[in-house]
Amino acid sequence: MSKSITIKDVADRAGVAASTASDALNGKSHVTEETRLKVVRAAEELDYKPHPGAKHLSSGVAQQIGLFIPASRKHVFSSTGFFNKLIQGIHEAVDGTDYSLSLRMSESETDAEPKLRSVLDSRTLGGLIITHPTENSDLLDLLEGSDVPHIVLGRPKRRTLYVDNDNVEVGKLATEHLVNHGYKRVAFLSGPDRFTYATDRLKGYRSALEEKGLTYREDFVWNSELVESAAYDVVYKKAQENQIDGLFVAGDVQAVGAIHALRDLGKNVPDDVALVSVVNSPLTEHFDPSITTVDLHEYWLGNWAADRLIQEIEGEGRDKPKVVIPGDLIVRRSCGCNPKDKANSKRSS
Amino acid sequence: MSKSITIKDVADRAGVAASTASDALNGKSHVTEETRLKVVRAAEELDYKPHPGAKHLSSGVAQQIGLFIPASRKHVFSSTGFFNKLIQGIHEAVDGTDYSLSLRMSESETDAEPKLRSVLDSRTLGGLIITHPTENSDLLDLLEGSDVPHIVLGRPKRRTLYVDNDNVEVGKLATEHLVNHGYKRVAFLSGPDRFTYATDRLKGYRSALEEKGLTYREDFVWNSELVESAAYDVVYKKAQENQIDGLFVAGDVQAVGAIHALRDLGKNVPDDVALVSVVNSPLTEHFDPSITTVDLHEYWLGNWAADRLIQEIEGEGRDKPKVVIPGDLIVRRSCGCNPKDKANSKRSS
DNA sequence: CTGAAAGCGCTAACAA
DNA sequence: TTGTTAGCGCTTTCAG
Questions:
Q1: Which of A241, A336, B75, B91 is 20 to 30 A distant from B246 in Cα terms?
Q2: pTM score, two decimals?
Q3: What is the pLDDT of residues B57-73, one digit of tens each?
Q4: In degrees rounded to 5, what are phi and psi of residue B187?
Q5: Is the peptide bond before A270 cis (omega within 30 degrees of 0)?
Q6: Strand D nucleotides within 7 Å of a protein CB
């Protein structure tokens, strides 16, 4: 462990006291521009890097941003690329700052609460980003009760900081695309109601239909858990009971199940049923037929969340309590409006 | 920031001095079993959690395990699930210890060296896991020159700690599977030679052929970069020049390109060409046809690497300088030996 | 084997 | 506006 330069060294070189150097480096407003410059220059010349442990100890804030995903590790890293892009965005936001990204997942969904509790009082985190797709939960209570700055990815029913997609718009976008291409019997395969994005996309689906003069029918709204097999079962059953020519699916994994079910019913996608899904994952890109989806820009969800969180930690809390990110339609083959193009999809960012 | 319990509190309750409490908790050999127990009990009763910053500052070791991936973020999180499972394994190994997992990627491949340099002397890491598929590089020099304990995922040509797959075996396994099913003209689509796993798999390919009495032919060994389009181009060209009935592909992304190329040449997989690939990713599972691959058990790569690294950090360095993990064949449809089964693949762990 | 004291590098409080 | 002085909570000498 070769002797590393401390703030004392910087102070000496700049001809000031250590505390002044500290203040200067931390942008405290009461230091003269002149001395600040001297200090900054000295720091650069010495290639000074503050000791993160010392900083943490004395200031009380850790230099890590946690990403807490209250779901089983397996689920987190299943086929959908959602979290990958999220992580990418956070990483990029954090990179270059004094913070680094620390991953915190739970063993299983039930494990989430004790895990979050321990994460929160481990004092290892300067701030926390949590994915949280429902309106309310004990997890949010925990978060509120803690003194760890945090931001929610989702749309919680609280006055906390959050970033989310505009899922009503997402639903509308997808449904409109189908309706605009002339499909009149468009069903919606949704996810569990507890997820705000599922109910929001339903709202969008409904309003798209109604704006186009189609009637919204409850028997065209189906539900399944977010796994392929569940989607398969539901669609296999419902698509026999109802004659449809279009299907909007709330997620990519469900879409795969849905297409398999339709296929097994002798219905071809897109020829017999046009399909649009959500989440622009590699899965949707490589699936045969490639799946038209709404890109949620997860990268930006993560990037903005991290940015905003860091502001919060540093006490620069702006007013905006929330950020809403729009989705973008990625047209591929499953929707039937682009049948020739095989690889025309915009590459994911 | 409610008053949190310090080691002093623990010491008081146990009726010893703070330093003794520290020693006891850290398993120093010179404390009586009796006092150690008193201290441990007191700590438990108080739910004592050492302040990570303080620990870091005084001991000099940070409580984070870094995962450094010297590749562009985009590439890291592309379709292949390799890194996902790796991360999962590391996370699980780290979870429950005093360490947490901190992600460090570089912007691009060229960015890797300066980035690693800065990561290494950021003093934020107690240890580092680095993915490193080549035998030698400046990155390894950097690592060796630093005082940060580290372990390499790959097979470096040095006396450093590492964990890797037995890629000769992997190549053998895949090739044998094809040969055993009667294919006699089996080619190998490899990756760039700089990657040890590519050349190792080639060795395995060759020895499998020769053990089965087939002659190894150089014109049956093809190379492409690890992207779909590159694989497509090579296979499109080579498969016209050479009549093959089997193809072993070094990676999942390349396999997708290869299948597309074969298809465009009017050759069906598996009917005209049987194919086996490596990396059991969601891509290979969902692709049509589903792709027979060798599972690399990335989870365990990560898990063992992290375990071993923590031992190293804590000075329990066992002797084993390396760990080698075998691969397992996952039979799906692309190899043609299981043509009926559509979804018989073992789910990825 | 245990305890007292010093110090890790930084920031926070207070004086100057 | 700056410098001095004290810790932050832990580990690490070094006496006892």
A1: B75
A2: 0.92
A3: 999 999 999 999 988 76
A4: -95, 170
A5: yes
A6: 1-13
